[in-house]
Amino acid sequence: LDLVATGLVADVMSLKNIENKAIVNLGTKNIYNPYIKAYLKADKRLKDKPFNAIVISFYLAPQINALIRMGSIEEKLNLFQAIIGEIDAEYVVANIIRLKGKQDRDKEPLVTRIVLDLQKQSKDKNKVILAEVPARTPNSMTGLIAGQLAGLYQKPVLLGRINDKGDFVGSARSINGSSVANLKDFCENSGLFNFVAGHQGAFGWSLPADKIDEYLKYADDNLPPFEKYYSVFTIEGDKTAVIEALEIFDMHYGPGFEEILLYDELYLMPEMVNIIGEKQNTLRIRTDELTYMAFRFKGTPPETGKMMKLVGKPNMNYFNGASIPQIILEDWMLQDLEL
User: Fold this and answer.
1) Three-state DSSP class for residue 130
2) Considering only CA atoms, which of 176, 179, 187, 190 is closest in space to residue 224?
3) Run of H or E residues at 252
């Protein structure tokens, strides 16, 4: 069941389906598979974290996906043998973590090049991002890069290349739980594509190259503005207790469920605000009650002596055996203190 739960979550099957949800609940509660056990032990980011749909979505599944996309036939066979207990799972896990690191390192410069090209051509202003991958980009990375661009721009992304037949072919990604989650239907209904095939928010497609401008205009005229849906609650009372209580909902999060965001307000004092981390790209705001974190932070720290109104995700940070309640910042605004 732990392996079946991993497959359900990794393939973005809806957990609003009661049978799927029951399998994931049971599968994440009882870990038997030797590969999953070895991975949870090897990934230091997961120390003391409970095994749940979030761990599958953001840690376990992407590692396996990296091997399927970039690994050799022998490495893929080793994965399946580790899953069924025929070879040492710890050795296979170590190799997969190495491959995922290489994939991430290879992907970042490609994303940067695409972003710069979009900016130069002002194509980042359209409702849908339609871009060409750099030459010699492996086909196996197109979908991954499209997904990262969708998160970066908060827009649907069609990423591909022009083939010998004069067709623009590639991968599309939207964002689940958004107003444009049914991107596949939207593309089909345009009548411009040779084909679209796959899930609503993740699919392959082929578009005649001479129809690109027509599709972009169709999208600008007909695509709804991007909106991501959340359940937002004001955090009140004992904030630490609220975060700890919400931790139980981690086991309920997954495909089909809205994420919970919390709204909070605080007065920023200089000693509360720090930029930390090896790369100096993590914003940390620490109060007597809670810690507020923003990862991959760019720019200057928020101005102190102001009221900060914020929304963020409740989170428990497990480190060296301790559990620290915190909020992962999604957005904020600063205002002068009202007297």
Assistant:
1) strand
2) 179
3) none
Confidence tier at 130 by pLDDT (50, 70, 90): very high
Q: Among residues 200, 153, 164, 155, which one has the least CA distance to residue 181?
A: 200
* CA pair distance 68, 274, nearest whole angstrom: 39
Burial (0-12, 13-18, 19+ Cβ within 10 Å), 10: middle
In the prediction, which pLDDT does 252 show? 63
User: What pLDDT is attached to residue 279?
Assistant: 83
Q: Which residues contact 104 (CB under 8 A, 6 or more apart)?
A: none
**pLDDT value at residue 144:** 85
CA–CA dist 141, 108 (Å, integer): 11
Among candidate residues 328, 212, 320, 198, the one with its CA nearest the CA of residue 261: 328
Half-sphere exposure in the Cβ direction for 36 (13 Å, CA): 21
Alpha-carbon distances, residue 210 vs 95, 187, 262 (angstroms): 43, 16, 46
| Measured distance CA(113)–CA(151) in Å, rounded | 16
Cα–Cα dist 201/85, whole Å = 34
Q: How many Å apart are CA 186 and CA 84, to the nearest integer?
A: 41
pLDDT in tens, 198-207: 988 889 999 9
Is pLDDT above 60 for 333?
yes
Can you tell me which residue has the tokens 């690191």? 101
pTM of the model: 0.67
**Among residues 152, 153, 170, which one has the least CA distance to residue 161?**
170
Closest by CA to 149, choosing from 177, 198, 114, 119, is: 114
Residue type, 23: I
Phi, psi of 164 (to 5 degrees): -65, -20
Task: Please state, in angstroms and rounded to a whole number, the distance separating the CA atoms of residues 308 and 12.
Answer: 35
Distance from chain centroid for Cα 218: 28
Task: Inform me whether the pLDDT recorded for 339 exceeds 60.
Answer: no
Q: Which of 91, 76, 4, 81 is nearest to 39 (CA)?
A: 91
SS3 208: strand
